[in-house]
Amino acid sequence: QKEVEQDPGPLSVPEGAIVSLNCTYSNSAFQYFMWYRQYSRKGPELLMYTYSSGNKEDGRFTAQVDKSSKYISLFIRDSQPSDSATYLCAIRLQAGTALIFGKGTTLSVSS
Amino acid sequence: EAQVTQNPRYLITVTGKKLTVTCSQNMNHEYMSWYRQDPGLGLRQIYYSMNVEVTDKGDVPEGYKVSRKEKRNFPLILESPSPNQTSLYFCASSPGGGTRNTEAFFGQGTRLTVV
C-alpha cells in the first residue's frame, strides 16, 4: 500500500461549485499535512498547512485532517476558473523526514 | 520579491557529462530541498538541507549530490547523468519556526533531458 493515495481525476466542475479533494494515508504516525496547488509548467505553491488533526480555513479554502480515518481533505468554496490546476496533498512524519506527495488531482472549473 | 530561482530552466545533455543545476533563494531560509517530478510517480524528494553544511538524503538520492556552503544556495549535481534522470526538477525552501516542516516556496522548475 502506498503511503498516500490521491485520486488523479480529472475533476470538472462549473464555476461557483463546492469542490472536495481528498487523500488517504497509511501510517497514523504522520503529523504534518499540506495542500499545494500547481499550475501547468509552474512549481507547486503552498495553499494550506496543518499540524495534527482539525480544520483550517483560509478564504475560500478549508483543509480538514481526520487522523482516526487517516483522511485529509481540501474544500474549495465558490470555485473560480482560476482555481483550475493540479492539487497535491503532502504529508510528513516528523521534522527532518521526507515530505511525501500524493500524485495530484487535476481540477478544471468552467465559466 | 521573495523567490526561489533555478537555473537553467531547460537542459538537454548527454549521458555521463557532469552537470549542475543551481538553486538560490533570497529569503534567508534555513531549509532547502530538491525534488523530481515524473508522470505517474509524482514529486519525490532527492536531498534536503536543514542549514549550512547540513544535508541529508531524501527518498531518491542515488546519482545525485548536493552541497550547502552558503545559506542562499543549494546546487544539485549530477556527476554522471543517465537517461533515467530525465525529469522535471524543483528546488524548494522554507523558513525556520512554525513552518519549518513545510516546503513553503518552490522554484519554477528545471526540465532535464539526458540522451
Characterise this structure:
The complex is a heterodimer of chains A (111) and B (115). Chain A is built from no helices and eleven strands. Chain A has strands at residues 4-6, 11-14, 19-25, 32-38, 45-51, 54-58, 61-66, 71-76, 85-92, 99-101, 105-110. The mean pLDDT of chain A is 92. Chain B has 115 residues and is mostly beta strands. In chain B, strands 2, 4, 5, 6, 9, 10 and 11 form a seven-stranded mixed beta sheet that branches. In chain B, strand 5 (42-51) and strand 6 (54-57) form a beta hairpin. The radius of gyration of chain B is 13 Å and the shape is globular. Chain B starts with a strand and ends with a strand. Classes of the chains: A mainly beta (111), B mainly beta (115). At the A-B interface, strand 5, strand 9 and strand 10 of A face strand 5 and strand 10 of B.
In short:
Chain A has 111 residues and is an all-beta fold. In chain A, 0% of the residues lie in helices and 56% in strands. The chains are: A mainly beta (111), B mainly beta (115).
Q: What's the SSE pattern of chain A?
A: EEEEEEEEEEE
CA gyration radius of chain B, whole angstroms: 13 Å
Molecular shape of chain B: globular
**Biggest interface in this structure?**
A-B, 22 and 26 residues
Mean pLDDT of chain B: 92
**In angstroms, what separates the terminal alpha carbons of chain B?**
36 Å
- Termini of chain A, distance in Å? 38 Å
- Summarize model confidence as the mean pLDDT of chain A: 92
- Helix run count of chain A: 0
| Helical percentage of chain B | under 10%
Order of helices and strands of chain B: EEEEEEEEEEE
Number of helices of chain B: 0
* Overall shape of chain A: globular
Please provide the count of β strands of chain B: 11
Based on CA atoms alone, the radius of gyration of chain A comes out at 13 Å
Number of strands of chain A: 11
Tell me about the biggest sheet of chain B? 7 strands, mixed
